[in-house]
Amino acid sequence: MRTLADFLRTTPGLDAADTEWLHLLVEDWQLLADLLFSDLVLWLPNDNSWVAVAHARPMTGPMVFVEEVVGQDATVVFGDLIDQAAREGQSEHVRERGQDLLHERARTVVRAGRTIGVLSIHDQLDSGRPQTRLEENYAGMGDELFAMVTQGSWPTQVAPSGARRGAPRVGDGVMRLSESGVVEYASPNALSAVRQLGHQGPIEGQVLLQVLSGLPHLEGHVDEGLALVAMGRAAWRADVSAKGAALALRAVPLMSGRRRHGAIVLARDVSELRRRGEELMTKDQTIREIHHRVKNNLQTVAALLRMQSRRVPDISAKVALDEAVRRVGVIAMVYEALSTGFAEAVDFDDVAVRGLRAIVEVARTSGAIDSHFTGSFGQVRAEEATAVGLILSELVQNAVEHGVPDGGNVHVDAQRTTEEEGEDILRVSVVDDGRGLPTGFRPSRAGLGTRIVTSMIHDLGGQIRWDDAEPRGTRVRFSVRLRSVDS
């Protein structure tokens, strides 16, 4: 099925600002659907007709359309409802659908004085049942928002996107404020949410900002953001905490032309969400502290091995201990990277560059070595980063010690591609321009470092290959399967 972005790309006459406006509308229109207990459909011109490009169903009441509406032609489904709205600015029908009576309205979507689409609203007519006070107030607020779509004053472009927009929903609690910030209506859920903060009296007829700023046990100071939201003066979001509870507030100013005549304020009790967030933050800090301590312990082990190496008279034993120091140092470098962030993954490019420089500096015996790194390892999970780090360390060590002991070039290149089923393929090459592979070289009969590399690559479901480089030198290429950080 085509997405909204697909339809917007192929609709003539829409510029970038129009496209962004329609995306904002669809991003935020669940608020309108919930207030009006109605299905919403957005229509764009298509040849000589109109096509449905987006559809929202209410979360506060029964839906009208169970079947998919997106992609359908307006005249086939709704007769001349959309055409009439496009010509006259608005239209309204009542039609039968089986045993139901549908009330359908449509208005133009306007931006910068131009019609860029049509928005239709569809709900079922009740069989004579009187509306409750909640339904009356929701309908009034929904009608005001619907009118703002035609005026081009909603959605609000100045409102921030993402987390600071849209967290509270109509079902969480909604209040209608007057121009001066007085609560004219509060839904039962909104009243309960405010009372969770410690307010015991009514809130209707009260200035919401005064109610919130007068809470007992208020945590922190009342900042400017909360004042703007609680007075309904800006399309913004703010949080307030008191008595161990937390409330998220979002304001939607109601406009008539350029004049603000009130606001809708959505309220949500986020006490439990905040508690869980604090727990997660504590766990993240604990994990970081564990990584930091592991890194310190590994550095201590490396220091002890280094001291032992100085006291061993046997040259082969000294070499073996020095190699162990290097390997422990690589693992410590990975844990150091983990201890500086919250994610359980490492930006391995930084580890690779630091490790490459350190190994070249320590391993070289004579002559200048030019080392450089291209490509990207990307984010590597903690449980795989140690193995990748050791593999790279061993290969670079071999290139420096055996490939270019008298000086030369060492080049590391990493390329990562995304595969299916949450796995990535990492392909790495280590190339030097030295003396090349020894005659009769066989990895299975090589030293401990090569056996370590082969074993770890096998554990990661990968492969490795040694070749002569052109025009001279050695090229080692390996590939491994890594779990995607997002999976």
UniProtKB/TrEMBL annotation:
SMART domains: HATPase_c. InterPro entries: H_kinase_PdtaS_GAF_sf, HATPase_C_sf, HATPase_dom, His_kinase_dom, PdtaS_GAF, Sig_transdc_His_kin_sub2_dim/P. It comes from the Bacteria. It catalyses: ATP + protein L-histidine = ADP + protein N-phospho-L-histidine. Residues 391-484 form the Histidine kinase domain. It is an enzyme of class 2 (transferase). Transmembrane segments: none annotated. PANTHER family: ETHYLENE RESPONSE SENSOR PROTEIN, TWO-COMPONENT SYSTEM SENSOR PROTEIN. This is histidine kinase. It comes from Janibacter terrae.
